Amino acid sequence: MGGYIMSSTINADTTNGVVVTSDTSGEIKLQSAGADIATVSSTGLAMASGKDLTLSSTALDASASGIYLGGTAAANLLDDYEEGTWTPNLYGATTAGTFTPNSINAGFYIKVGRMVTIYGNCRGVLSGAAGTAQINGLPFARASGGVADNGYNATFSAICISYWSPLSVNAGGFLIHPNNYIYSHTRTATSSSGGTVQAVNADNNVHFSGSYYTN
């Protein structure tokens, strides 16, 4: 037995609106022109093959558990996405000194799952500093441990320096220390054995970008 209900408004009551139920073994199907669009069952909402779940003028809130993409295994779960700003701060490892940033000093990040992509323009005057030049203020802590599967190894070559004034040495890419600051070695033709880049007390302008992993 089947039939159609046609109306511009259907309300079960003023509290719940429309309530449609099935027994524990049944399904509720949404169809168009006799073709399945979606099925609601005890396991949730499933879209028919080739059909998309489209939202307009709003957002999909998956903050409680995330969204599975390309499968339902743990590795397919996207449980975090965000964008924001961070403030890079330049100092010396032996003597921190004073960093006076100017209006251009800024950082931006995009975090997708465990991967954080950062952009930075560390710009300002460093004075009274000594030792290795270091920048802190990273938006998220670096992955801990010492194995490749948590991104530990990938942190050592993932952040590139495109410009650093007033350095007079050839700086390599930034490394991320376990204490969550970034620093650089001087680069030779074959290795980074030239030592760390030292803080320069002057108007510094450092452009860099790259990615690293969190836990």
Topology readout:
Blueprint: E1 28-32, E2 35-41, E3 44-47, E4 67-68, E5 77-78, E6 81-86, E7 89-92, E8 98-101, E9 106-112, E10 115-127, E11 133-136, E12 159-165, E13 171-176, E14 182-186, E15 203-213
Antiparallel strand pairs: 1-2, 2-3, 4-5, 6-9, 7-11, 8-10, 9-10, 10-15, 11-14, 12-15, 13-14
Give me some keywords for this one.
single chain, 215 residues, mainly beta, 6-stranded antiparallel beta sheet, 4-stranded antiparallel beta sheet, elongated
Question: Can you describe what's shown?
Answer:
- With about 220 residues, the chain is mostly beta strands.
- The protein has two domains: about 1-55, no CATH class; about 80-215.
- It has strands at about 30, 35-40, 45, 65-70, 75-80, 80-85, 90, 100, 105-110, 115-125, 135, 160-165, 170-175, 180-185, 205-215.
- Strands 6, 8, 9, 10, 12 and 15 form a six-stranded antiparallel beta sheet that branches. Strands 7-11-14-13 form a four-stranded antiparallel beta sheet, with no helix packed on it. Strands 1-2-3 form a three-stranded antiparallel beta sheet, with no helix packed on it.
- The relative contact order is 0.15.
- The model is unreliable at about 5-10 (pLDDT under 50).
